[in-house]
Amino acid sequence: MPWATTIILILAGLCGSSLGQYNEEEDLAWLQYYLRQSRVSSYNYVPYYEEESPAYAYSYPSATDTEPEPEPEPQQAAPWRCPQECDCPPNFSSAMYCDTRNLRYLPFVPSRMKYVYFQNNLITSVQEGAFDNATELEWLALHNNQIGSEKMGKRVFGKLQRLERLYMNNNNLTRLPGPLPRSLRELHLSYNHISKVPSNALEGLENLTALYLSHNFIFEMGASLKGLKSLILADLSYNNLRKVPDGLPASLEQLYLEYNYINAIPDDYFQVSPRLLYVRMSHNSLTNQGLSSNTFNSSSILELDLSYNRLQKIPRVNTNLENLYLQGNQINEFSISSFCSVVDVMNYSRLQVLRLDGNAIKRNAVPPDAPLCLRRATVIEI
Ligand SMILES: *[C@@H]1O[C@H](CO)[C@@H](O)[C@H](O)[C@H]1NC(C)=O
Ligand SMILES: *[C@@H]1O[C@H](CO)[C@@H](O)[C@H](O)[C@H]1NC(C)=O
Ligand SMILES: *[C@@H]1O[C@H](CO)[C@@H](O)[C@H](O)[C@H]1NC(C)=O
Ligand SMILES: *[C@@H]1O[C@H](CO)[C@@H](O)[C@H](O)[C@H]1NC(C)=O
Ligand SMILES: *[C@@H]1O[C@H](CO)[C@@H](O)[C@H](O)[C@H]1NC(C)=O
Ligand SMILES: CC(=O)N[C@H]1CO[C@H](CO)[C@@H](O)[C@@H]1O
């Protein structure tokens, strides 16, 4: 560990004198600071959308899953058709299971199907017309195959007006498939070879709430996110972005950009997204020069991960922020003005977890008014 010798500081010992005049304040949690036994490795917040893999079960979707699952359909008297490579459970007539059986091609999809599972095969192409009869499709799982962009029909999704979830993660796509059905709610495209998302690639997807594009080679997102008026989660981590996407949607709550090469963020970038809660930008190239003084001072953000960047100062954050990760930067001062522009009994930060380990802050750099401003903090690592 590079900072094995870093001083780990329990601030409780430093604040005796400055506490004196406010010791009637009941909720001063300052003296209860403790250092966690193991380093704070996981996030305190569990975002709403945390699962990348589809809730898949061969038999029936389990009732314990948090995401809504397709309901088993009543048995139909309709003539029974099922590709012989697949399983179509008789009492769940709208689902077809063709996963994990070394298939090299896509079997036909009978028209009654709503949920079809082709994942974990060796499928390399999606031929034109493959889903033309399956106009009822709502879930299409094609992940963990070897589908290449040049082997996908130009209009394969053309007839799918009800498709809500498309899983094509872990394939060989070099560009976004499409045109995509406008009904999509979740689009899973992580672990492909996509390098560019044109500004219009996601146009019209008015119901898209979750977009997963991590682990690609994306260097350009254009303004592709801007018009997605239902988007809650955008995962663009592990790509080649040197700049943030042009414009965020107002609905966005979770933005994941870690493991890119981003070095700057335009002024007021986050102000257009008043619901933003989680911003993760660890392992980028951010410097203080690339930020404006109020870049991260957006009142909705609860969790901000800027660890492993090149920051030399603590950026200003809003007093509502609860978790701030800044470990592995080059920060050399503990500036309390980054958290509180005014420090008094009434004005203080809601910060609970602050990580500053792996920086260049000295023990005596902790200002005496830190306890008053950061009175809600339970974990501070320096
Ligand atoms: C459907 O059939 C399977 C076995 O074929 C059984 O395990 C399952 O409980 C049945 N489900 C319903 C909802 O009838
Ligand atoms: C699609 O539907 C048409 C008419 O219902 C039928 O003739 C054709 O065989 C179907 N094709 C497939 C691949 O299911
Ligand atoms: C898909 O990509 C993997 C490596 O990412 C490669 O081994 C495989 O041959 C590719 N398949 C096709 C059909 O191009
Ligand atoms: C989006 O969702 C709404 C409400 O569920 C639905 O009425 C509408 O048709 C959907 N839009 C598209 C383009 O499918
Ligand atoms: C954050 O912005 C608000 C206005 O939106 C301002 O009052 C406050 O002083 C700023 N916080 C810091 C730490 O600069
Ligand atoms: C800068 C700031 O937030 N000032 C506030 C400090 O607390 C007083 C009393 O609640 C407010 O009136 C100020 O606006």
From TrEMBL:
Annotated region described as Disordered, given as residue ranges: 59-78
InterPro entries: Leu-rich_rpt (IPR001611), Leu-rich_rpt_typical-subtyp (IPR003591), LRR_dom_sf (IPR032675), LRRNT (IPR000372), SLRP (IPR050333)
Keyword Disulfide bond: yes
Organism encoding this protein: Taeniopygia guttata (Zebra finch)
Gene designation: FMOD
Protein name as catalogued: Fibromodulin
GO biological process terms on file: collagen fibril organization
Main location: secreted
Ranges where the LRRNT domain occurs: 81-115
Keyword Lipid biosynthesis set for record: no
Subcellular location per the Swiss-Prot or TrEMBL entry: Secreted, Extracellular space, Extracellular matrix
GO cellular component: extracellular space
Function as written in the Swiss-Prot or TrEMBL entry: Affects the rate of fibrils formation. May have a primary role in collagen fibrillogenesis.
Keywords: Disulfide bond, Extracellular matrix, Glycoprotein, Leucine-rich repeat, Proteoglycan, Repeat, Secreted, Signal
Subunit structure: Binds to type I and type II collagen.
